[in-house]
Write a structure and sequence with these properties.
By secondary structure, the chain is mostly helical. It contains 6 helices and no strands. The longest helix is centred in the first third of the chain and has 21 residues.
Length: 153
Amino acid sequence: MPNHFHFLIKATDISVMPVPKTVIPTQSLTEGIRLLLSSYTKGLNKQLNLSGNLFQQKTKAKCTSLVSDTSKVFTIKNYSTIAFHYIHQNPWKAGLVARIEDWEFSSFRDYCGLRNGTLCDKEVAYQELSIDKEKLYSDSYNTIEDFKVKLIF
């Protein structure tokens, strides 16, 4: 997306452990993302001879496995799957592309076999999210109702 990005990350026990000796308590995964964004910003600023922030402070993160659903609109098991499809649908629903697979900055092409990227562990996603490889493409075009998006994001 032109003004934001999404990651769906499978956290491990180690990645959610607190980082030792930090002023503000933080988890390893959160610190890793902070360092990634900070390093990218520094590199870009150096390349373009600029200074300042590129990303907002306080990046938003949401744990999909700890969501409490009192509305019974969706289950915790399919919450992550909804997030997976939402992320891929985002540029399409925003009108930036005619088809989901047209957004070059998305992992959707990798999951559909249109590109052979190595950033995503597709097998983990298929297994953890119970995604049917044969139905992935068609399932991805089933738009998520706006009220569900508002409930979970």
